[in-house]
Amino acid sequence: MIEVDELKDYLDEYLEEKQEVKNLTEETIKKQTFNISKFIEYLEDEGIDELNDKNVKKQLRHYRRYCLKKRGNKRTTVKTYMMNILEFINSEDVQEEIQHDPIKMKDIIEVKTEDPETAKKRIEKISLTWQQSDFFLDTIQQSGNIRDYAICRTFIDSGMRLKELVLLNKDDIQVPIDEKGFYVLPDDPNDFIDVYLRAETTKGESKDRTTFITYDTLVSLNDMMMDRITKLRKNTHDVYRPVIQRNKAAEEINREELFTNIKGNRIGKRGVQDIIKKHARECDERIKSEGIDCPVNYAKNVSVHILRHTALSHYAEILTVAEVQSIAGHSNSQTTDKYIHIDREQMKQKLKVNSRRFN
Q1: At 297, is the secondary structure helix, strand, or coil?
Q2: How far apart are CA 359 and CA 344, in angstroms?
Q3: Fewer CB within 10 A of the end CB, N or C, for the chain?
Q4: Which residues lie below 8 Å from residue 324, measured CB to CB, with a gap of 6+?
Q5: Residue range 245-254, pLDDT digits in tens
Q6: CATH of 118-351 among 3.30.505.10, 1.10.443.10, 3.40.50.2020, 1.20.1270.360
């Protein structure tokens, strides 16, 4: 147990020791002092005299809720507050007094259970349905931009992150490459193709993982690579120049990066984001001109994250949580849960099909 009015003394010692060990900047020390002091002030204002192993998690939860609801802080801001506070609460001297087990962020985040209908509506806000994603891809295809179509197909198939996509190399797609630098298509058009994501390209991961693309997306990648060779004619006033064409074909054979910009270099994150926003606007224009009844404002709602969420939501309709977690690269299954809603009717149908197993 530790009395609240003693916490400020412990805070001074904690920050002094931290400064010596980590050599933090004055600005960092100032911010951490402010964040932790505000928590101590909150405890005093609430009339909390002491922190002990029975109430410490409860008070941390209350303070987090207070920052979000009463102070109106953003979630990212509150996360920073709580990380600073938790590091202090878990420091050796304070922990010895309170005598609690180390507290993690997940211990103080309140997870509310959702009914299936609420979960379904939430998922619809963060992803596109099968029909809506098909409309998005069809609009890009109609624009004639072969590269953009391949990029967006890859997102919607794989559920990979933006950084992972721009760092993709040609040999990360796990099919053979022929002598001209193109992918060899599988015999079965229903096959799913492995895409290898190296650990250095992923978000905070220490090991490689694999996701998937479809046969049709692999075809679109081949179309994109062919377009890189033949598109050179536009730069030569539509005059066929064999030497230049052969040089371009040779470049494609030896090319490392999968997606490139107009200069032939690896495409950047901003370039991909601009591509998606451009085609999202085209979707809205098409909806308006063709008088289509569609609840989605593509320009407002569609982004890289939405395409990733779309893929994971589609996978979640078919695969288990553990399987979707593996594809997404989530370290915590709670993150994966937000893509999943439980449809009781679907559950009953699955049980009905397998009813003999229960007899």
Answers
A1: coil
A2: 21
A3: C
A4: 312, 315, 316, 336, 339, 340
A5: 567 777 778 8
A6: 1.10.443.10
